[in-house]
Amino acid sequence: MGDTIDNRKKLILDSITIIYKNYLINTLKYINSKYPKLFPKSKLLSEITKISMKRVPFSENTKTKLKKRVIEKIQIKKQRNTGYYIQSTKKRKIAIDDDLRCMARLWGNGYITIQKCNIIYGIRCNNEIKHGISSKYCGIHLRNKNKHGDFNKEPTIEIKNEYEKHSKIYKKFVSKNK
To answer: Containing domain of residue 102, as a range?
Structure first.
């Protein structure tokens, strides 16, 4: 059993080595085609023959650090995939007045709440509006399409359908209120 696992690992590592080697060769060929005077074909061939892929084993300390980082990334993804919106723990240095905040609606992991018998879809952007422009959006939402609409307006049917289809919170919300 252990022997087959070791063989699989070796096969995977050999495949990755071949992929990297081919990538390097293709990169060198591209450089040769773009700059033939600076990197002639003779130099290309000599560089290709010099390519040697050696696997350097990781130290135990490095393995531990990598494993810790991978576990953290997996936990963050699991947390995001629950569908619950968790507000950032970062504190803003300066609180922005509501009049100066961008009016764009954000997905916010499909966040939904009820306020005064109204369903509120998503969250409001926290960025400050762009000064000097008669706009209600920040620089990001001026440049990009404001896909989810204005936070202070009723969302379109398409946006509501998107929440119904993709928001895990919406599905829990509907099942709870039936």
So the answer is: 98-176
